[in-house]
Amino acid sequence: MTNQKNKTLYTGVTSDLKKRIYEHKNKIHNNSFTAKYNINKLVYYETTNDPTSAITREKQIKAGNRQKKLDLINEFNPEWKDLYEDI
Questions:
Q1: Nearest-CA neighbor of 4 among 25, 31, 21, 23?
Q2: Residue 31: inside a domain, yes or no?
Q3: Residue 7 included in any domain
Q4: Which of 44, 50, 66, 81 reaches 20 to 30 Å from 9, CA-CA?
Q5: pTM here?
Q6: How far apart are CA 39 and CA 24, in angstroms?
Q7: Which candidate, 18, 24, 22, 23, places its Cα nearest to that of 2?
Q8: Is 6 inside any structural domain?
Q9: Residue 68 lies in a domain
């Protein structure tokens, strides 16, 4: 996820993507990182049926440098459009 200017990136894992993005967009958790930095645009996601694999992948993405994250997004969503309505 990112903010409107695509400056700040956030990576997370969830079992209910649509619900979690809704929470970010509506700042349900008002003290969270995403609320503080107005991160409300879904620009990249991956799915899996295995929670352990999802957590492992989240850690891999978080461990990568910013350029690797930008490359993932640019390959998946070159226009950086908000994918919320697509899920």
A1: 25
A2: yes
A3: no
A4: 50
A5: 0.94
A6: 7
A7: 24
A8: no
A9: yes
Return contacts of 64-70, CB within 8 angstroms, 24+ apart: 66/9, 69/9, 69/11
Q: Match 């107005």 to its residue by tokens.
A: 38
Domain that holds residue 39: 17-86
**Structural domains of the chain, count:** 1
**pLDDT, one tens digit for every residue, the chain (87 residues):** 999 999 999 999 999 999 999 999 999 999 999 999 999 999 999 999 999 999 999 999 999 999 999 999 999 999 999 999 999
| Euclidean distance between CA atoms 49 and 54, whole angstroms | 8
pLDDT on residue 38: 97
What is residue 20's predicted lDDT score, i.e. its pLDDT?
A: 97
* Residue 67 three-state SS: helix
